[in-house]
Design a protein that fits this description.
This is Serine/threonine protein phosphatase I. The chain is an alpha/beta fold. The protein is built from nine helices and ten strands. Helix content is about 40%, strand content about 15%. It is globular and about 55 Å long.
Length: about 240
Amino acid sequence: MIAPQNSPRPKLPNGVRIYAMSDIHGCAHLLEQMFAVIDADMANSRPYRAIEVFLGDYIDRGPDSRRTLDLLIERSRRRNTVFLKGNHEAFLTSVLEDPSRAAEWFQFGGLQTLMSYGVSVAPGLGKDELSGLVRELSSAMPPEHIAFLRQLRPTFTCGDFFFVHAGVRPGIPLSEQSEQDLLWIRDEFLQSKRRFGKYVVHGHTPVRQAELLENRANIDTGAYATGNLTLLSIQGNSMLAI
């Protein structure tokens, strides 16, 4: 899907190509497939500078959050990568600091993450026992995974593009957006037709296929439920969703 042509197209600096993905949600097998697509594309066309931008929600809901973080961390050692924070990473970080929120996290897709680290869950556990599972998870998580979660950034800007997990609040300068909105906003952002100062690339709200609109691009295609993890390639003023 190519961006609309009836208005000036946003543009990246010359020689830069960006590959963007969002809302992997523990689908490590799909992430590996997309890495293979990127590697083949780079081998074929050899961009001057490639940046891989990940828009958050790496964990929860899907089957293998642990493997997903392993793959992303390993990728960062070999490629130019940018990792943004999603609401799921923010929530897990808060649960690790306050295990009493465990029940809320489990309703949010956290059980799958817990199990991916080898923590077994029995039905009918009380609040104290659920908190104990979170402490067990904290011990089971490799230090580099916890460091990864704590080092995620809220946004990334390159050229005319602004990358973020959920979106932005219309009418507020990009430099003054609250983290709450950057990670959680939906309707006010999605329904807005206005320009935001930059072209916003985001995820967070699943759509059947990637939406490349006049003012924003939504690349969350519900990988954990659909098996479709979208890759957005951007170079110059051209956007292609795969």
